[in-house]
Amino acid sequence: MFSIFPIKGYIDQIDGFYCAGIHAGLKPNGNNDLGFIYADTLCDVEAVFTRNKFQAAPLKHYQAYEKGFKTNFVLINSKNANAMTGQKGIDNINRLFAALKHDVTNPIMSSTGVIGNPLPVEKILAGANSFDLTSKDGEGLSKAIMTTDAYSKHCMYEVEVEKGKSFKIGAVAKGAGMINPNLATMLCFITTDANVPKEDMKPALEAAMHTTFNAISVDGDTSTNDTVLLLANKKSGVYAKEAFFEALRMVMHDMAMLMVADGEGAKKAVAFEVINAKTEQEAQTAAKALSNSLLVKTALFGEDPNFGRIASTIGASEITCSEDTLVISYNDVVVFEKGEILFNKEVEAQAGEVLKKEQYKIICDIGQGEASYTAYGCDLGYKYVEINADYRT
């Protein structure tokens, strides 16, 4: 048996990890825009990246390292994605790291922001060389990686595997727009002192991805820079596989839910539960179709329990389904049941009350099997257009 409980603080509360954020001149408003994570011992590292075919330069730079490399330094900038910058984008990262005054090993670069602009190397270098690598300023880092985020995103857990033996795991992340299954426009940095074997790290990440970051959608767009990075310094000397896998899943779930709730201008965070589908793949297809549908999202924004949009989206997803077996509910309010419309004035009022909540479920019982999948999404309103219409300028 093991116990997992949340604790206050940022990733720098884990022994051997340091971090901070500063203003390096990338954001014109003076907010933090450059941050770092440093470890006083070399860490095993694993990552999962976007499936976008046009991966940004930092991702290509990471993947050029030899398999199984260790690192002790991650440099993160906002405002500039260093994407669609070709070989020059990678060369700029190499030039930047070559000029660092800090003694670091196999440094990793991570960037977020506007696509299609050269990396401002001199500004970033000046900022990075001013870092105090003994800093414990998780809040500063969390602010430095934000773009359109309304708030910082972080969590921490302690995992007790037996009395007197525990490890910690935590994360800091950013993400609010360009959020779509197969990752999102997001960065997530996870640190742990668990003595996790290198061979368990990638499987643990991939297992958790399926029901966390790959299950969320804000706007149906997938970015070029999406990264989930896991760093393990192993200082606790403690490890239990089942406990680690579950704690990592909880950390990633927390970050994913914060991203959905912070969807640019979003007011509603909604779980789309598809149950009793013929196969898990069909359940996933329908759930993600619902979380991505613009018509569904605008109905959520208008607090309109328009179950016709739900049914239409399921049908359009081309899964195995029938009106005669379909049941649609908003939380526990059933509006359509196996071919019968239950949507009278009383039921509509009850469903409308559900849609006024900040969080709720839309449950779609397909009635074709036993498979299920839950995707997570949010509403889409005027603020989203306002933010993204002038994002570059």
Automatic annotation (TrEMBL):
Where it sits in the cell: the answer is:
Cytoplasm
What residues sit in the active site?
185
Q: Where is this site: Involved in the stabilization of negative charge on the oxyanion by the formation of the oxyanion hole?
A: 112-113
- Show which residues form the site (Cleavage): 184-185
Q: What class of enzyme is it?
A: transferase
What is annotated about its quaternary structure and interactions?
A: Heterotetramer of two alpha and two beta chains.
Q: Which NCBIfam families match?
A: ArgJ, PRK05388.1
What protein is this chain from?
Arginine biosynthesis bifunctional protein ArgJ
Task: Tell me what organism the protein belongs to.
Answer: Candidatus Marinarcus aquaticus
